[in-house]
Structure to design on (762 residues):
């Protein structure tokens, strides 16, 4: 066990820090509150700049424009990005999930065609996985793709698609064999979102925003050369994408949560409670301390998981504890914020009395989704129960 | 950065697990728990042969000179076996105090014999107030003599000497000293016996100052959290095994999500406590500026998680979990005693608050 950075890790971090110091945009704060439709060109430009410095996809192999960064270096990358409050990258799904899947499962022609434009944010990617009747039971999805000569004809609906409204391409999971067992009849298609018959509708969520879309496909023609991986092997291709979802990206959560708790502690010094600052109230102190401690434990768990993956080469199902831990902690943290702020906690951005421009009411509502998105807590507990502890499958 | 165990650390943990499984299986643990002191001289000699009695102490005093992470690993395995007797009191607590506050002459005289397995020892901390705050100690020595009472002193009846945390110093009292009266207190944990210790003009040798105790207390606190992790792991293992084999409604009960998800939570709590304990061990070893915070984080989390894991484990075992013959309640008892010892979660949350709120420093050492 040695928690000090190695020479390579320090060098990587120092190079990145130096680059960020001179390149991170100074005006992001002015942009971040605008609707994403407005700020999107800004995010594209930022990604292009990162790619000019070869920082957009550090985990990718060097020959594809990345840095072949180790998992620990990737974690450092996200930490540093969070530390300087860098804007997100426009093509985050393309860079984080879909690009790596194309590199792993794609043909040479596909890699040549898609990879450079993912890196440059010229083509934005979205993911067509969940359906109205296939959420946790993803393999039960029904979107149909029928072979017609050298094309598939695709019909059906997808839901919870991030970046659907701006997507140029979609990693789409479809059913190509209705007679096979449900995991064995799926195929992944790379679909041009500008194809005839694709309709994108905003999905309004409980925060009032529309981060996600619904996609409707009516007789959409997709050339057979756009199959990613093998026909009817789509489950494995999709799983390799979801594996990346539990990768190093979480390293930044620690800093984001820490920013929240630091601000809460600051607020507690000025908010009165029983005639003295809340920071002196024993109950509030207990709750703030509990959150602070759990934020650290989340990081310790993560560092252990990274070390294990580095040693064994594969992210294991133990990653499920990370998902449960961060999502439930975030909800507890926002509840503590609500208790501390009292009546002010409910005020939305725009209200003249709102604290911190209403981020606390927003975060309270938004974090409600954390234990549902990217695998519900129930599914994560099933994964731990069955794949880690070896208990019989419950479903 | 590498937060996994090194090869030698894995080896130590593995051999400790095998050692305890061989030398202190459940039957032996239960036999010792039924004795007055839970101490066994033959087992102690074997612990000494393994080098465990001198694990973290300098070789100059007969120790093995290993680090705090190694101590955490050993305590985790001791906790898994529910090792009865005075190992924690003698080696982890009193040994660390002697190492932290004593001058070389004291170490030679008192720490050396601990390392060599020649003596048992303990440390008397709490008084009637039962406060883990060191400046709440009222007992004072005058003219080299102690008069007064300490409570909740672990393993005092088989200690050859007792270190006493007093208001005006850290003292050492020989167990044969005049005016010393040791009486059992009936604690819930049957494997670690508690005593009241009364001093009446008992000669006491001053060995250091209470202000130098913090580090030794941090080491003992983290080690106790490590021991809790071992107990949690054992409880989890027994419970998962039971959930796989116990059948109701024609199925193993582990197939039911109400059972399976509790097992998943036990796993999450055990692993998270383990991460916190390993980090604390590393921070102590490196003398990292956040070591005290890291220790409190570990003890806070392990104190609560130890209890929760025990609750879930017994619940899943159903009626069988409530029987005397099942070992789970013995772990449950130890977990409750250890939850309180060296400060419970509430105590440590306040300690964390005093660092992150009052000192304005949220950060543990960050990468």
């Amino acid at each position: 066990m040695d928690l000090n950075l190695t020479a390579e890790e320090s060098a990587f971090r120092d190079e990145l820090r130096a680059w960020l110091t001179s390149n991170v945009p100074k005006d992001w704060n002015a942009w971040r509150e605008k609707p994403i439709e407005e700020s999107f060109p800004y995010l594209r430009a930022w990604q292009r700049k990162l790619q000019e410095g070869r920082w957009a996809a550090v985990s990718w192999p060097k020959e594809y424009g990345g840095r072949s960064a180790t998992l620990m270096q990737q974690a450092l990358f996200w930490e540093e990005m969070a530390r300087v409050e860098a804007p997100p990258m426009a093509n985050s799904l393309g860079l984080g999930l879909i690009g790596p899947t194309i590199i792993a499962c794609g043909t040479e022609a596909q890699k040549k065609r898609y990879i450079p434009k993912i890196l440059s944010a010229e083509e934005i990617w979205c993911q067509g996985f969940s359906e109205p009747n296939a959420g946790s039971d993803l393999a039960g999805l029904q979107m149909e793709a029928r072979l017609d000569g050298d094309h598939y004809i695709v019909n059906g609906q997808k839901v919870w698609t991030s970046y659907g409204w701006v997507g140029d391409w979609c990693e789409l999971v479809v059913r190509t064999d209705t007679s096979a067992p449900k995991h064995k009849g799926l195929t992944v298609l790379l679909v041009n979102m500008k194809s005839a018959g694709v309709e994108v509708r905003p999905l309004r969520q409980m925060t009032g925003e529309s981060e996600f879309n619904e996609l409707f496909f009516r007789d959409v023609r997709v050339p057979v050369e756009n199959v990613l991986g093998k026909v009817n092997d789509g489950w494995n291709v999709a799983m390799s994408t979801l594996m990346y979802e539990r990768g190093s990206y979480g390293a930044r959560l620690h800093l984001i949560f820490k920013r929240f708790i630091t601000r809460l502690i600051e607020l507690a010094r000025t908010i009165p409670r029983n005639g003295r600052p809340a920071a002196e109230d024993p109950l509030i102190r207990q709750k703030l301390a509990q959150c602070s401690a759990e934020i650290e434990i989340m990081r310790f768990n993560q560092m252990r998981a990274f070390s294990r993956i580095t040693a064994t080469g594969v992210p294991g199902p133990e990653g499920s504890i990370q998902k449960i831990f961060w999502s439930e902690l975030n909800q507890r943290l926002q509840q503590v914020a609500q208790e501390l702020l009292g009546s002010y906690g409910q005020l939305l951005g725009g209200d003249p009395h709102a604290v911190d421009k209403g981020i606390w009411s927003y975060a309270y509502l938004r974090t409600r989704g954390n234990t549902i998105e990217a695998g519900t807590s129930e599914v994560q507990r099933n994964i731990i129960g069955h794949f880690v502890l070896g208990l019989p499958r419950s479903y | 950065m590498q937060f996994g165990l090194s090869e030698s650390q894995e080896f130590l943990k593995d051999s400790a697990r095998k050692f305890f499984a061989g030398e202190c299986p459940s039957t032996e643990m239960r036999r010792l728990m039924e004795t007055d002191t839970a101490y066994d001289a033959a087992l102690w000699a074997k612990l000494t042969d393994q080098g465990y009695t001198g694990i973290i102490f300098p070789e100059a005093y007969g120790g093995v000179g290993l680090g705090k992470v190694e101590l955490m690993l050993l305590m985790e395995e001791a906790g898994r076996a529910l090792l009865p007797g005075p190992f924690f009191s003698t080696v982890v607590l009193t040994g660390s105090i002697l190492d932290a506050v004593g001058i070389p002459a004291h170490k030679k005289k008192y720490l050396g014999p601990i390392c060599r397995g020649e003596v048992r020892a303990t440390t008397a901390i709490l008084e009637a107030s039962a406060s883990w705050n060191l400046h709440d100690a009222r007992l004072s020595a005058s003219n080299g003599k102690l008069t007064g009472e300490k409570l909740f002193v672990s393993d005092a009846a088989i200690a050859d000497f007792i270190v006493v945390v007093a208001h005006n110093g850290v003292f050492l009292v020989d167990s044969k000293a005049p005016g010393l009266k040791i009486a059992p207190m009936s604690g819930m944990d049957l494997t670690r016996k508690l005593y009241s210790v009364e001093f009446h003009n008992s000669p006491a040798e001053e060995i250091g100052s209470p202000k130098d105790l913090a580090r030794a207390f941090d080491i003992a606190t983290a080690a106790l959290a490590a021991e809790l992790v071992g107990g949690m792991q054992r409880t989890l293992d027994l419970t998962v095994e039971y959930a796989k084999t116990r059948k109701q409604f024609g199925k193993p009960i582990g197939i039911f999500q109400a059972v399976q998800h509790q097992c998943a939570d036990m796993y999450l709590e055990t692993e998270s406590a383990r991460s916190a304990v390993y980090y604390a061990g590393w921070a102590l070893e490196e003398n990292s500026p956040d070591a005290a915070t890291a220790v409190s984080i570990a003890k806070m989390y392990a104190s609560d998680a130890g209890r929760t894991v025990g609750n879930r484990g017994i619940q899943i075992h159903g009626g069988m979990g409530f029987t005397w013959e099942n070992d789970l309640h013995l772990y449950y008892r130890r977990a409750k005693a250890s939850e309180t010892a060296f400060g419970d979660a509430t105590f440590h949350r306040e300690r964390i608050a005093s660092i992150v709120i009052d000192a304005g420093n949220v950060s543990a050492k960050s990468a």
Summary: Chain A touches chain B through 58 residues (CB under 8 Å). Chain A is about 45% helix and 15% strand. Residues 7-90 of chain A form a domain with the Butyryl-Coa Dehydrogenase, subunit A; domain 1 fold (CATH 1.10.540.10).
